[in-house]
């Protein structure tokens, strides 16, 4: 028994290389946070799904319209673009939209359990083109001046 006790006295867990490999265990240091790369300022910020465009399909609820948004997505197997439709509940604060109106959905904070968009009127396509305010200098005469 004395032989066994002398072997245990000589055996030390801190000096053995069996537990820690061939090199001694380094002392723990304070963990440093990994540096996150900062995005370049020249690239625009990606804001996915901030605004959608769709058609009002239901306007019976008070201050709420159901808007159907149609998008084209590739088919998983055949890779052809197919139409996918999804209905969103949108907030209509003054009940101005009727069934069939084309509206734009703007992302907002959640208004209720199902509403996170606000319906706004779609800007008309010809609002940028104003034909009545063209200066006389820019108008070209079609007749030849002889």
Automatic annotation (TrEMBL):
Extent of the signal sequence: none
GO cellular component terms given for this protein: chloroplast; ribonucleoprotein complex; ribosome
GO molecular-function term, one example from the UniProt record: structural constituent of ribosome
Segments of this protein annotated with the region Disordered: 19-40
Pro residues bias locations: 25-40
Location in or out of the cell: Plastid, Chloroplast
SUPFAM superfamilies: Nucleic acid-binding proteins
InterPro entries: NA-bd_OB-fold (IPR012340), Ribosomal_uS17 (IPR000266), Ribosomal_uS17_bact/chlr (IPR019984), Ribosomal_uS17_CS (IPR019979)
Record family assignment: Belongs to the universal ribosomal protein uS17 family.
Name the UniProt record assigns to this protein: Small ribosomal subunit protein uS17c
Origin species: Lithospermum erythrorhizon (Purple gromwell)
Lineage: Eukaryota, Viridiplantae, Streptophyta, Embryophyta, Tracheophyta
């Amino acid at each position: 028994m004395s032989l066994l006790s002398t072997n245990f006295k000589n055996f030390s867990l801190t000096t053995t290389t069996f537990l820690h490999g061939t090199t001694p265990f380094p002392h723990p240091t304070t963990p440093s946070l990994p540096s996150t790369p900062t995005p370049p300022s020249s690239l625009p910020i990606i804001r996915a799904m901030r605004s959608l465009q769709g058609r009002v399909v239901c306007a019976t609820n008070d201050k709420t319209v159901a808007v159907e948004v149609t998008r084209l997505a590739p088919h998983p197997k055949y890779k052809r673009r197919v139409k996918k439709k999804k209905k969103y509940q949108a907030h209509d604060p003054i009940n101005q939209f009727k069934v069939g109106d084309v509206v734009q959905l703007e992302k907002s904070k959640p208004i209720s359990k199902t509403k996170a968009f606000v319906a706004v009127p779609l800007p008309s396509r010809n609002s940028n083109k104003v034909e009545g305010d063209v200066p006389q200098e820019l108008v070209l005469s079609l007749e030849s001046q002889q």
